[in-house]
Amino acid sequence: MYGNRLAITEIACDAGRVRSLAQELAAWPTVVTAEIAAREYGVVVTIAALTQSDLAEILLDRLPRLDGVTGMRSHLVGQFHLGGNQWRIGGLDPHSVARIAEMPLPADRPGRSTAVNPWADPYRELVDALTEDGRRSAADLARITGRPLSTTRRQLAHLLGSGALTFRCDVAQGATGFPVIVQWWCKVPVMQMAASVARLRAESSVRQVVSMPGSPNLLVSTWNRSVAEAMRIQETLERELAPLVVVDSAVILHQVKRLGWLLESDGRNTGTFVRYET
Fold it and tell me: How far apart are CA 132 and CA 135, in angstroms?
């Protein structure tokens, strides 16, 4: 769970500065994800802020002043249509998938409750602890926050019931058999957006779909077995999703940071988590 304002920013910089700039930005608490791409705009970061003014300060003041930065293109995130929490690696056969879908939900699973602000008390400390480790139990959270267990359980139920948090089990990309990450920056008529997103959900290699104002207005991120497979995805996009047009593409060479965690070159967790700050 990150701030209320998100932007995906592509950054061009001096030759030889790409890796060091990506690592520098990965240390920023407001940078959720940092990636290195094989293109002119070689550093791609997702930035989070609680307010529009905070986001504007980062985009207009802090980033352009960094040493070696020669250009920037920023896109405000409108909606996440598909994310890593919904992506499936395909490791189970159809029968196993069906059996899991039939499993009953826990009886104490909280129902949908009224909206809460996860960054305000009393939820902020719970969010901080869960952002670092989503497997923490109510007893763990009570110990970390110094609250009674009964209070922690009640607040946790309200937080989860509000839908303010999304949990996901992530994997090291280098161990998945999908070593090639390609991002497609697309332009699609607004009236065709819903149909395009629905079609993209059917593509097994599509891991993330984000819409945004402006042009391009749709970002499609894919994990692929090869560059050749990625090119077939572009063919599918342009042939089957017309009038969608692919404006630009980026092959990601290295994910330096993903959802706060610093990563090795093969996508494995380094064990270092950069806590989000407001």
Answer: 9
